[in-house]
Amino acid sequence: MSTVPLLQVNDLKKHFPIHGGFFGGVTAKVYAVDGISFDIAKGETLSLVGESGCGKSTVGKALLRLFPLTDGQVILDGTRIDDMPSSTLRPLRRRMQVVFQDPFSSLNPRMRVRDILAEPIRNFGLAKNSADLEARLVALMDKVRLPKDAINRWPHEFSGGQRQRIGIARALAGEPDLIICDEAVSALDVSVKAQIVNLLQDLQKDLGLAMLFISHDLAIVEHMTHRVAVMYLGKIVEVAPRRSLFAAPKHPYTEALLSAVPQPTPGIQRERVILKGDVPSPINPPKGCRFHTRCPYAFDRCRSEEPVLRPIRDTLGEGHVSACHLHDLPPAENPLSGAKGAALLAVG
Description:
- The chain is an alpha/beta fold.
- It is built from 11 helices and 12 strands.
- The strands form 2 sheets. An 8-stranded mixed sheet has the order 6-7-8-3-9-10-12-11, with helices on both faces. A 4-stranded antiparallel sheet has the order 2-1-4-5.
- The chain is globular.
- The chain starts with a strand and ends with a helix.
């Protein structure tokens, strides 16, 4: 895995206006994504996790330029693409592809698999002739482990897991560098989830793909990712390597999310953290730390001053950043000092 960023995101914002009143003017805004930054290296998987409604899918759609950004920069392999005209962006679109959540609605029911897979190849002019096109189609079916003769079938003739394999094949057809998986396994049965996750991992190793894996399923994330970014109400509150985050989370929200994940290893148990109250509205997010209304450790500073992402000392390695005022307290007073995570790691 390369350490050179393939994708850089700087202070990305997406605010959706709410129209109302007699003249239909803008009366409020939904702060869906409100200033997030991260990067993804070549061949790396970064998982973006959080509760439903935190803005994860909006991030994926914003990176793909499916709607205009409110602010921020998106840089793909050194080239800024967020302000690029559509005509200039078109050749670069093949380098970023997406696998959608619902394998049933993401495929055109009036197109055979052959035509679904051939469409991006023709759009980007990748095939030299009809023989080359046919060879590419056969190779795509082989990569996603579907029988070659299935290429002439219709989408309704496949199961949910098979349809998702077709969706992955369609994403691969453009020979991308980055694939955005937007809840790509959440609609599948448990056994099928494992098969699709294993397929994605194998494809990443074989093709050197980078992936942004958007999910709320932390058990799946732990199995397949390199790093994890945790979102809450439009903000990234923690980013860390997988091993570091799961062993010793440095944000109360991450701690609460991980406490709900079943532990398959006997003898390892996490103390369950029950969050009180509901997620605040993204139309009127709280002042200070956005998590303070539900945080069991909140104090006065959390209610008035917004924390920023900053490096956190971690005995498990570098690259752990968190946005939490608790880390300004003495270690003896900080409930996230790492003693619990170190104990869990030692037992494991």
